[in-house]
Every structure is written in structure tokens, then in C-alpha cells.
Amino acid sequence: MNAAGKLILVAGLILSAATVQAQTPPRERKEPEKKLREKPITVPFELLKSRHMALQVKINGKGPYRLIFDTGAPTNLINTKLAKEAGVVKKEDKGGFGLFGMAGGKTIDTLEIGDVKLEKVQVMVMDHPTVTAISNALGPIDGIVGFPFFARFKTTIDYQKKELTFEPNGYEPGDAIQALMDKMMSAQKGKQEPAIVAPAALWGFGIDKDNSDEEPGVVVKDVLAGSPSAIGGLKAGDRLLTIDGRWTDTIGDTFTAVSLVRPGRAVTVIVKRNGKEVKLTVKPVKGA
Amino acid sequence: MRWRFALAMCCGLLPAVARADDPKPAEKLTKFEIPYRLTDTKHVLVRVKINGKGPFNLILDTGAPALFLTKQVAKKADIEVDDKGWGAIGKFEFEGGLKVDKARAHVTDIVQVDGMNGLGIAGVELHGMIGYEVLARFRIQYDFTADKLLFEPLVGFTPPPPEKIDAKGGDDIQTMGPLVKMISALLGIKPNFEIAPRGFVGIEFDEVDGAVVIKKVLSGSPAEKAGFKTGDTIAEIKAYTIESGKDLAKALAKAGVGTKLRFTIKRGDKTEEITIELGKGL
Fold it and tell me: What is the predicted pLDDT for the residue at B163?
């Protein structure tokens, strides 16, 4: 398989973030967008030979252009040609075009895919070499539709029907480019301390695992009387396998799993007890 | 062994066959709830075990034609890689219980994964990405207001394999590799993907009119040893004023096991200070 089939743009992002960091102050945050109508919209996609999904997309009323739909892309992306045609950047604009024509974060006034219409959409302007390569081989492709678009919807991908379904879900994707820049700015030099992960609620038990223990799960050490986990039937000596479907193979894993369970939500906990898997329900509470 | 390997390679794209751990004919599973997280770079991250090893952190990426794994992962998971960089996978299991039969992986060190790991910008170590060859076998629902993705096997559907295209110059992005490594070296960033548990207090609380009131002190907990009592109002932790559960979570966010913290509490008419050493637990 030709590696050109691979299409993600994080390297580009890293570069742009690094360059921008040195040159310009952080951009202003964008206002939240208008709420969309609440019914699902189905849009057909074209399955390219490279097996990318291609969509017909109107940008600022121009087009349609053929863009790739990519769940692995943290930003939307258009090439410089489209950006100029659709007025995303000014035709005479020469500044900012660095490596691969990168102009960093811009805003599209309207982006339309079938009956889906979004306003004020963040986009990166860049002649991404992989997009260009696929475009040369398979006909014009002018960019990528990524996370800031599909995160706003309950999005279903069906390769059998070659359909995407979008149902507005109220999710605000934020600004990936800004987040990356913030991250780069705050990145500490030298060896970093491990990140501390906090449970989102109180469960009331302790766990342990020996370094030599490579079996799945962690050992439940103590279950405090009257705690949510005691009420749910957890016992000292149980081997904790999953919390809410998430593997708990290490202490870190377990804390990650409980960092994602809000107080008052009853979740399934699976333990191994006397060689048998036992399914429990535990409802952690507000606490620390 | 060799012929079996070859056979698996030919049949890399058989229809999806997914099964539950313990199939019960009465309640046939047609949808799998797959836990996910969003990385700091807004990638959709799921975890998988490969040949019983892992879990590995993989990005769901429709922009990738196949399953891509780093060389390190292939080695850990005992994947035998052929001279074209492909390896057949015996057991491929998503967190959430979905098993994928006859998966194969392209084993290579991709600049995007290397770059993100080098800078630590995803906030989590990445081990590869799951692309078209696996994703196309399922109808997948992404909803970031929910905490699971939904995977529905497309039974009887054989996704057409990717065709080789003549795409010149597509590897240019890979030449960024050394550049990315240089940037991380220049910035002096050495990411640490390890995580440490927050320290344990052992209190259940209520939020009452802009105050955090202890509802229960768990017996045997650090809070009990330190002398907290039911009905105490937590007014301050160190210099933070506590008016909500959120304030409390913020004040404790970076306190690991063994951290000593001074709490100011209101008990009846009195204001008292209690110092607690956070313990192990959750």
C-alpha cells in the first residue's frame, strides 16, 4: 500500500503551532455558534479508490468542492486555491504562507454539506502534500472536513450505504488550533511529573497491584463500610476487571475510568470473585 | 504457520464477525458500546488489546486506509510482520467487548504519531490508528455528548479493499519527521505519560446554598482519622475558598497520595482548622 493513502495532518499542526508561537500573540476565542435545527440529516459520500470518504461541500456559497471527511483530523482544512476562490483569504494575500502554503487558522462564514449548514467555521488553510497527492491521482480534492465539523453532531458513518448522518447534539468542539497553541505554550521543559488523575465521585474502596502482576485487573484491597461500593456489593479480595466498560488493568487505568463517572450515575462494575466473573452495579456519590 | 499467515493476509477483508464474550441467543448483541476519550489534540481515542497484550491507545481515523501500528506495539503484541510491513493479528479486542476477526495491521512508525508522542501534545501516548479496513465493517455513531461510541457490525457486508493509487509526493509529510523531532528537542520537552492517583479524603458531601457540607465520613478513611465530622462545612482548603463541589475538586486536583492539606471547617459556631494527610483510595 502506498503511504500516500495515509492522511492526517497533525504534523502540519505541530509545525504551524510552533511557528505561530514564535510570531504572533494568541488569537481571540470564537463565539459559540447558533443552534441548528434538531433533526437528523443524511448525506451521501463518495468512496474513493484510496477508501477515503469524499463529500460535496459549499464554502461561503461557492462550489461545491470535493473534500475528504476525516475523523482523524483535529481541524478542517482547505487548500490555498479554494481559500482564495471562496474569499476565506484575500486574493492578494501573500503574508503567512509558509511551508505548504500554510496560513494557519481562518474562519469560513458558511459551510454547507447537503442540508447541513454551519456558520463561522474554523479552518486551516494549507496545501497539505497528502491531499495534493490524492487530488492528483483521483481528481480534485480541495481539503478535509474534520473534528470541528462532525463533533457538533451525533454523526453516524455507514460504509455499506455510503451515507453519513448528522444530528445536532449541542456539543461545542472548541478551537483545536488554539488548544494546541496553549498546550505548546504551557509545555514544561525537562522531565515532567506524572499527571494526577482525580475520581469524579466518591466510591469508597482501595486498590493495589504488584509490579510483577501482569494479569488483567487490579486487586480490591479494602471496601469502606457504608460507602457506595460497599452498597453495590464490592468486596475486598475481588479482582476489579472493568468499570463502566473500561478496563482497569492498572491503578492509573482505574483512576482514569473513575475520572469519567459523574456522581449519581449507576455503572456496571465487573469483578472476578472465586474464579467467576460477577457483575455489580455501583452508584458513586458526591465526595472526595 | 507460514501458510496460515499467508491465508490470513489474503482474507484481510472478510465480513465483520463480531461476538460477545458470552453469547446468549436470547439477547443477541447488535450494537457495542465502545468507551472512548478525546485526546488534547481532539482525536477520538479508543483502547484495544492485541493478541492479549495492551491495552494500546489508537485513534479512530477514517483518513487512514488500514490499521496502523508502531513497530514497538507490533513487537509487544507478537505480530509477525512481512517484508511489505503487514502483519496478521490473531486477537483484536476493543475496550467495551467488541472482537474483530481477521484484522491485519500495517506496521510502521508514522511521523504524526511520533511527533505527537515526542511533544506529548495529545496528553496520552499514542500507539497507532484504526483506519478504513477495520472501521468500514461497522456502522459507527460518534456523539461527544455521550461517553460511549456505538459500533454496529454490518453483517454480510464486505468493504471493498483500498486500491493502489499512483499518488506522487504524498510522502512529503513524512519528511517532516526530523523537523518535528528537532522542534521537540529545541523546546526541551520530555513528556511523561504516567499518571498518579489523587489522594483520598473519605467524605461524602452535599452542596447546600453555596456551601459544601459533609454528609458522611467513611469509617477507616483519612478524613475520620483527621477528625472530620458529619455536618462540618468545608470553608477553605489552603488558601482556596470552597463554595461548591467544583471548588473542592479544584483545590484537591493536584494533591497526590501523602499530601498534607489544611482544611478550615465550620462546626456549629466554631471555625476550626484540620490538617489531613491524603491516603490511597477512591
Answer: 86
Half-sphere exposure of A234 (CA within 13 A, CB side): 33
Instruction: Provide the pLDDT for residue B119.
Output: 79
Cβ distance B133 to B65 under 8 Å?
yes
Number of domains in chain B: 2
Residue of A nearest to B130 (CA): A72
Which CATH number covers residue B273?
2.30.42.10
Query: In this structure, is residue B158 part of a structural domain?
Result: yes
- Backbone angles phi and psi of A283, in degrees to 5: -115, 95
**Is B245 in contact with A286 (Cβ distance < 8 A)?**
yes
Measuring CA to CA, how many Å separate A277 from each of A217, B6, B98, B144, B225? 12, 37, 18, 30, 35
Name the minimum distance, in Å, from the CA of B167 to any CA of chain A: 5
Q: The domain that contains B93 carries what CATH number?
A: 2.40.70.10
Q: Is CATH 2.30.42.10 the classification given to domain A205-282?
A: yes
Size of interface A-B (CB pairs under 8 A): 340
Report field, pTM of the whole predicted structure over 0.90: no
Q: Which domain holds residue B221?
A: 203-277
Where does the pLDDT of residue A93 fall: very low under 50, low under 70, confident under 90, or very high at 90 and above?
Answer: low
Using the predicted structure, report yes or no on whether residue B233 has a pLDDT greater than 90: yes
SS3 B64: coil
ipTM, two decimals, is 0.85
Report the topology of domain A3-186.
Cathepsin D, subunit A; domain 1 (2.40.70)
pLDDT number for residue B187: 66
User: Which cell numbers in the block locate residue A178?
Assistant: 488554539
Cα distances (angstroms) measured from residue B151 to each of A163, A188, B95, B139: 15, 38, 12, 6
Question: A132 to chain B nearest CA, in Å?
Answer: 7
